[in-house]
Amino acid sequence: MLPTPARHGPVRRLLIAAAGLLLLPATAAAVVTLPAHAAAPPDPPGWTSVFKDDFNGPAGSGVNTADWQYTTGTSYPGGPANFGTGEVETMTSSTSNVSLDGTGNLRITPLRDGAGNWTSGRVETRRSDFQPPAGGKLRVESRLQMPNVTGAAARGYWPAFWMLGAPYRGNYWNWPGIGELDIMENVQGMNNEWATMHCGTAPGGPCNENSGIGGQLACSGTTCQAGFHTYAVEWDRSASPERMRFYLDGVNFHTVSQTQVDATTWTNATNHGYFLILNVAMGGAFPDAFGGGPDAATVPGHPMVVDYVAVYQSGSGTPPPTTTPPPTTTPPPGNRDAYSAIQAESFNSQSGVTVEPCTDTGGGQDVASIANGDYALYEGVNFGSAAATQFYGRVASGAAGGVSGLVEVRLDSRTSPPIGSFALANTGGWQSWQTVPANITGVTGTHNVYLTFTSGQPANFVNVNWFDFGH
């Protein structure tokens, strides 16, 4: 299954490479041979550990649920099917799929039953606050061995060690705007690792979604499948611009700089914490790019073996310049004219929406990734003494057939009854703009205005460029 063609693609690690992508040769960096079980290294000089798991415990036991949680089934509750990638396995908490081996390793093992159904495992940190301190750095690393299977027997294998932005939890439809950092991905038993940052909007956008901003490197010494290697990302806020540096066995082979995307995209992807994920998927968009699978030749039972996971942070330094838009973007309370266009991106607060470049007349930005339950607040809208009776919204939608929702206006509280609304379905595309009117209950004076969005399904259904009111 190829990545979804919908504009706001679902979650994680969609296709990050075309089938013809060339593999980079191994570098000449020295590889230190370590035993199959090596304790997480001591804190490097200048760094302090904030999370470590050596996966010590009795053979056949599960992960420490004080630190980790299992993600089971074929999707998050209410999220995109097959985790948004087309993978075919069912994730379980069974120790057949996820267990300690008794010698200091975690094993995530995909299995196939007699009917051809696949199961596997996916665990996530309970913590979702991993981010650098202001002016400091965060390093997330794991020493692991990819499933030791190659060739036809490896078709469909997709192991990964990665991170998702905390706002994804409980929403499940705001990817990729909330950010994703793929520290290690591999498919088809190839001696190669891919690292990627996902952000912005999909498809396309400033981060080239659904591919993301990616790099790759082959394992040297032993292959990625035949031995343990260390995979890491370092999120650096100690200098401006910020950077994400990806490492394989200490070699920095891929870097994403804050200057590669616009300020809003970077802020939306980095102004919050992240949680960590370890999983082995079977099938989906990435394996499809390299021949597909799993199929009859695929051999189940080859685990990803994880020696440790560690998170370190450095002390703070001089904070980099802020990327927050200038204060003039949001007028002070009481200074918004209800009868002039109020730019949607000038909200005072919001939940669930992202900001993106707009191709409508005048350019600028619009708010996007809007789905059921999202909202945006605009403080101090002055309606004057003559009652406003009309609401106008400049909106666009590329929603699939049958997907629609309501754009509602509420005053002073997000839970107040709407004073007016209009319904919207596909307008011809996510940048195909229309001005839609709606009658509203007469309103005077100065109010905080909430735009709220209601739909009977979870998919994104509208973008908003601006709105205003009339008599």
Report on the structure:
It is a single chain. This protein is an all-beta fold and 471 residues long. Helix content is 3%, strand content 39%. It is built from 2 helices and 30 strands. The protein has helices at residues 263-270, 285-288; strands at residues 47-53, 68-70, 90-91, 98-100, 106-108, 111-112, 118-120, 122-125, 137-145, 157-165, 180-185, 193-198, 213-217, 229-236, 243-248, 251-257, 274-282, 304-314, 336-337, 342-343, 349-351, 354-357, 365-370, 375-382, 388-397, 405-411, 420-424, 429-443, 446-454, 462-470. Strands 1, 4, 5, 9, 14, 15, 16 and 18 form an 8-stranded antiparallel beta sheet that branches. Strands 2-8-17-10-11-12-13 form a 7-stranded antiparallel beta sheet, with no helix packed on it. Strands 19, 21, 24, 26, 27 and 29 form a 6-stranded mixed beta sheet that branches. The longest helix is centred in the middle third of the chain and has 8 residues, at 263-270. The model is unreliable at 1-33 and 317-333 (pLDDT under 50).
Class by SSE composition = mainly beta
Beta strands, count: 30
Helix coverage percent? under 10%
- Report the mean per-residue pLDDT as an integer: 88
Q: Main sheet?
A: 8 strands, antiparallel
Low-confidence segments, ≥5 residues, pLDDT <50? 1-33, 317-333
Distance between the termini: 51 Å
Basic shape: elongated
User: Which radius of gyration do the C-alpha atoms yield?
Assistant: 24 Å
Strand content: 35-45%
| Number of helical stretches of at least 4 residues | 2
